[in-house]
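Bench log. Compound arrived from synthesis this morning; before running ITC I wanted a structural hypothesis for how zinc ion sits in the protein. Inputs:
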Amino acid sequence: MPTSPLVLDQPESAALLPSPPNGRGPDEQVNKLTSIPFVLLHLLPLLAIFTGVSVRAVVLCVALYVGRMFCITAGFHRYFAHRSYRLNRFWQFLLAFGGTTAAQKGPLWWAAHHRNHHRYSDGPLDVHSPTQKGFWWSHVGWILCDKYATTDYDRIRDFAKYPELVFLNKKDWIGPWALGLASYLIAGWSGVLIGFFLSTVLLWHATFTVNSLAHVFGRRRYATTDTSRNSAMIAVVTMGEGWHNNHHYYQASARQGFFWWEFDPTFYVLKAASWLGIVKGLRTPPARLRAANRVSLGTFDVGMFKAYWGKASSAVARSHVSQVVHDSKISASEALASTRESASQSMVERKQALEGFVHSSLESAEELARLTRLGQRDLGLEG
Ligand SMILES: [Zn+2]
Ligand SMILES: [Zn+2]
């Protein structure tokens, strides 16, 4: 379904709470100890100065990047998280196993968290919103936080009924270890360091940019209730996932590049697989839907407005809490309670609220004007 511009899918209580300075709760911290292996893995490809880099290892690196990126975008994302096409149980398992070799945990963990991202996009309950919780948190921090290490099976019940998928989800180390071993057999230690580890690290950060950069950088075509954006650069490195504003607008579509010029190789492969009868029920965006709800046609950009408004109001709430703490030397939680009880606001707070509101409104208006210009160019191309 297209995102309705009027539905703000946030529980009321969460939406009303002022967020802390970094937008994260006290239980949203990076576990520094368990993050050490993750950080060290980034350095492993450097050991290739001792082994040398063979042509075979470089070819393996490229092949493993492309092959596994496809399993993540077509499999974990478009199939398991969004059910944008159908597969039989054999292909479903194969795609799930292929995805686990990318070392991004299991298919059910990945897809369940991603469904939550769409449910709470850019609100306080969004696990990895850069506008709410900071850029680095949205990129990688949340993955290294104990709070999000488990799988929310309730969110992915439709696939959790398959025992083989639950097995892969629980034993998510089998895929990466098997591929690491295969890389050694194919191209020796150079194959492991460059073919396997380097492509794995590149895959991680390319995938993570969809959670971080694709909500910060690029153009907004559709007035969705989040801050998602379209970026050709991100689409190139992620095989079509950079059309993230299109995707938030119409999640059900297996095709994320809505127009011929929007590079989406994941979809091209899925289309070819549908000709072979492997993929069925491939969903694409109807023309009338692609033409509707455009920022360039004057639709109010509620997603950007919400983000600016949220920032302004939580900054004001925080400044009041810190003022109360400073005045009375009591704890932050007591101060927060006192804030809620307080019926009147000082002139300073009102001034700050107004300034924040005016500033964000101006930014929204500028964005709208810019997109109107760009959108008109778009429409010319469509004709
Ligand atoms: Zn998605
Ligand atoms: Zn998103």
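What the model suggests: The chain is about 60% helix and 0% strand. The longest helix spans residues 174-211.
ITC booked for Thursday regardless.
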